[in-house]
Automatic annotation (TrEMBL):
Keywords: Carbohydrate metabolism, Lyase, Polysaccharide degradation, Secreted, Signal. It holds the Pfam family Pectate_lyase_4. GO terms for cellular component: extracellular region. It comes from the Eukaryota. One of its GO terms (molecular function) is pectate lyase activity. InterPro entries: Pec_lyase (IPR002022), Pectin_lyas_fold (IPR012334), Pectin_lyase_fold/virulence (IPR011050), PEL (IPR045032). GO terms for biological process: polysaccharide catabolic process. Residues 35-262 form the Pectate lyase domain. It comes from Lachnellula subtilissima. This is Putative pectate lyase A. Belongs to the polysaccharide lyase 1 family. Residues 1-19 form the signal peptide. It is found in: Secreted.
Length: 324
């Protein structure tokens, strides 16, 4: 197993043991997810969503390779503080070759960084005191792809923090082909009602082809920003997409099963807005007020599966299923 970090002049390979998580899906789905969904290469760049904007997201494509075998060597390129791995570099690619690697109780923190790619990582049970599974702050052009993030529902809702939180005016972010499950508060985009001065005009985030299962809320909860959620499957949760504080969200080609409030504007005094097109809401309703986005509002091209094809396309493919 190789874990690699590529910067503009450095690629780090670390031999680590991996362990498969225990999803709550049925056995056939688990077996299907274990099959490799696609081949990937180190030269892959973001081709979908907001991560394609502002010059694009290419990660450490072209960096030289250095092999390391100890955590001490690894932390010359990444800073380990307690149970957080800090990425404070530009032009970084963080991925696992040959198969996924599991980080248990270790949060990945992308701070003040640009042009970052995170792929094929499994993150489990990061305690709230240790941050989020993946936390993105004050960063631009970040692509999180084919990852799996989970905790459990055996403890209170504040025992863990977020699975993927995108905050503090981060920009041009895509989260794609990922499996997020068994968690209370999954994904914040914009962390506080009181942070509008920093966040307004920023937080452009695309989330697509993701599988959200057994979640309490926040899939995502978005404040102040602009979101695009498409081709995703939401299963068994209380609240789904929550738009707040003037946020605008375009929601297309998704399926919601056993979700009490699939699309809503909740928990903030200032409402957010959502435009929903071709979504299977499982018999529930979109209760968020309509905003200004349209199907042609996005500054990038994208392909919709159609809500009738989402479940078959996403389940078993979303997650850390790449082979390099």
């Amino acid at each position: 197993m190789k874990l690699s970090l590529l910067s503009s002049g450095l690629a780090i390979f670390l031999q680590l043991a991996s362990a498969a998580p225990t999803p709550t899906s049925d056995e056939n789905v688990v077996q299907e997810r274990a099959n490799i969904a696609k081949r990937a290469t180190i030269t892959d760049i973001a081709t979908t969503g907001y991560a394609t904007q502002n010059g694009g997201t290419t990660g450490g494509n072209g960096g030289t390779v250095t092999t390391v075998s100890t955590l001490a060597q690894f932390t010359t390129a990444m800073t380990l503080q307690g149970s957080l791995l800090f990425l404070g570099l530009s032009l970084v690619q963080f991925r696992c070759e040959l198969g996924p690697i599991t980080l248990v109780g270790i949060g990945l923190y992308i701070n003040k960084s640009a042009n970052v790619i995170v792929r094929n990582i499994i993150s489990q049970k990061v305690l709230a005191a240790n941050g989020d599974g993946i936390g993105i702050q004050i960063s631009t052009n970040v692509w999180v792809d084919h990852c799996e993030l989970l905790s459990d529902l055996d403890n209170g809702k504040d025992y863990y923090d977020g699975l993927i939180d995108i905050t503090h005016a981060s920009e041009w972010v895509t989260v794609s082909n990922s499996y997020l499950h068994d968690h209370y508060k999954a994904s914040l985009i914009g962390h506080s009602d009181n942070n509008g001065a920093q966040d307004t005009g920023h937080l452009h985030v695309t989330q697509h082809n993701n599988y959200w299962e057994n979640i309490g809320s926040r899939t995502p909860s978005i404040r102040f920003g602009t979101g695009h959620v498409f081709n995703s499957y939401f299963k068994n949760m209380s609240t789904g997409i929550d738009t707040r504080d003037g946020a605008e969200v375009l929601v297309q080609s998704n399926v919601f099963t056993d979700v009490d409030e699939p699309i809503a504007a909740l928990y903030s005094d200032d409402t957010g807005y959502a435009v929903a097109i071709d979504n299977d809401l499982g018999g529930e309703s979109n209760t968020a007020p309509a905003g200004n986005l349209t199907a042609s509002s996005m500054p990038y091209s994208y392909s919709l599966l159609g809500s009738g094809s989402v479940v078959a396309a996403v389940v078993g493919t979303a997650g850390a299923t790449l082979s390099f």
